[in-house]
Specification:
CATH topology of the largest domain: Four Helix Bundle (Hemerythrin (Met), subunit A)
Structural class: mainly alpha
Distance between the termini: 34 Å
Keywords: DNA-binding, Transcription, Transcription regulation
CATH superfamily of the largest domain: GntR ligand-binding domain-like
Strand content: under 5%
Number of domains: 2
Helix content: 55-70%
Protein name: GntR family transcriptional regulator
Strand order of the largest sheet: 1-2
Number of strands: 2
CATH class of the largest domain: Mainly Alpha
Number of helices: 13
């Protein structure tokens, strides 16, 4: 992702093709348990009729699901749902389907543990590589989190832009390759937490992010790393707390 693309970043993406719609509906059905592990999917004719697509579109969709680790095709057997250990949780779609299907506190804890590995390291690298312009843009997104006129969805998107830009500013190509995973994981977790936005101290959210920017501007890698850890742990608490609220369960 380029820096100029961050400004237009949205929390959701519209499905535009028949292929993407088949992949999305079948993928979500598998992750949600509508098709159990080991179960054989309906035959091509049935799925073609259900989705009103051609055989070629359906087969390409199945190839996509295979690449994501969700299914495996065997001759004379059909296409079966694989064991969950084969599902690629780093894949944006697979992670998105988990959030749509409903996640547990255990799932969120695993996700935030991964964030604790990746994002403090990205912040530390940003403290070394960020320009004054980079810091100004990060500060802009951090300040947006404290704007009382923003909806929770707008706050989600400002938060997404902050964290995605952090990975770009780290100037590490391996970190940048994780942006899709980070965007989807943050989108799901932030949306869950911010769905209870009325209970969140907005100023505190802004200040915790501004602390990261302050450390980056000082070229303080350790400070940036610690400040990012603090933000992630606050996010973990908010997301897990949101699971127990009626709107999160509904």
């Amino acid at each position: 992702m380029r820096r100029d693309e961050v400004r237009d970043l949205k929390a959701t993406t519209l499905l535009r093709t028949s292929h993407s719609k088949v992949v999305d509906q079948m993928g979500h059905a598998i992750v949600s348990g509508a098709y159990a592990v080991g179960e054989t999917l309906p035959g091509d004719s049935e799925l073609e009729e259900r989705f009103d697509v051609s055989r070629s579109v359906l087969r390409e969709a199945m190839k996509t699901l295979t690449a994501k680790g969700l299914v495996v095709a065997k001759s004379r057997v059909g296409t079966r749902v694989t064991e969950k250990c084969h599902w690629n949780l780093l894949d944006e779609d697979v992670l998105h389907w988990h959030f749509r299907a409903g996640v547990s506190a255990e799932f969120l804890n695993h996700l935030y543990d991964v964030r604790l590995v990746l994002e403090p390291a990205a912040a530390a690298l940003a403290a070394t590589n960020a320009s004054a312009e980079d810091c100004g843009e990060l500060r802009h997104y951090a300040n947006a989190l404290g704007a009382s006129n923003l909806s929770y969805r707008q706050q989600v998107e400002a938060d997404l832009k902050f964290h995605v830009l952090m990975f770009i500013v780290s100037a590490n190509p391996f970190m940048e390759s994780m942006i899709g995973f980070i965007k989807t994981s943050l989108d799901g977790a932030f949306t869950l937490a911010y769905s209870q936005h009325g209970n969140h101290p907005r100023d505190g959210i802004a200040l915790s992010h501004l602390a990261i920017v302050d450390a980056i501007e000082r070229k303080d890698s350790t400070g940036a790393c610690d400040a990012m850890r603090h933000v992630i742990e606050l996010g973990r608490q908010s997301a897990i707390a949101a699971l127990s609220r009626p709107s999160a369960r509904g």
